């Protein structure tokens, strides 16, 4: 008796248009979280993304899933910026500065409203993305410190929280109206990071671990 050969099923892959829709939703949510916080209605996100409400819910069954995806996307983009910066040669502080400006353009400020969100901050995807960012940015800062260009009393958390805060519009102010100030004010902050330090900072250096506890 001949045994039938089992049919090998090919794993289904998302269609290109489905992937584009998902990317549009995440991009729209990232921008709106910066402007309005993580509680912005799904229908508003769908409208900005140019998709229907059903498409949003098909990709993200609840708000926590969307918030987590936005956080991961922001951290992944930040890591990519850091990797590009680390691949550059030359002045270590200028490399760090270029990364900081790129992170501001990448809307790292979208992470600010997430601190009070209810999503699982210990999700494996989030842990991996966060550890990658911390390692890469720490390496950049260590290089600048070793070159005697970065003041020694600052840590990764100091840089990341200020970049996020400076690139986030004040409450009630539209993003486009303050974008032109972001890089100006960020450069003022970066100049204050240069060694030798001109003043003693109050408190202690902020680590990423400390930020996670608040």
Automatic annotation (TrEMBL):
Entry keywords, A to Z: DNA-binding, Transcription, Transcription regulation
- What is the organism lineage in this UniProt record? Bacteria, Bacillati, Actinomycetota, Actinomycetes, Kitasatosporales
InterPro entries cross-referenced by the UniProt entry? Homeodomain-like_sf, HTH-type_TetR-like_transc_reg, HTH_TetR, Tet_transcr_reg_TetR-rel_C_sf, TetR_SbtR-like_C
DNA-binding region of this protein: 41-60
Protein name in the entry: TetR family transcriptional regulator
| Species the sequence originates in | Streptomyces nodosus
PANTHER family, sorted:
HTH-TYPE TRANSCRIPTIONAL REGULATOR BETI, HTH-TYPE TRANSCRIPTIONAL REGULATOR RUTR
In this protein, which residues make up the domain named HTH tetR-type?
19-78
Which Gene Ontology molecular-function terms are recorded?
DNA-binding transcription factor activity; transcription cis-regulatory region binding
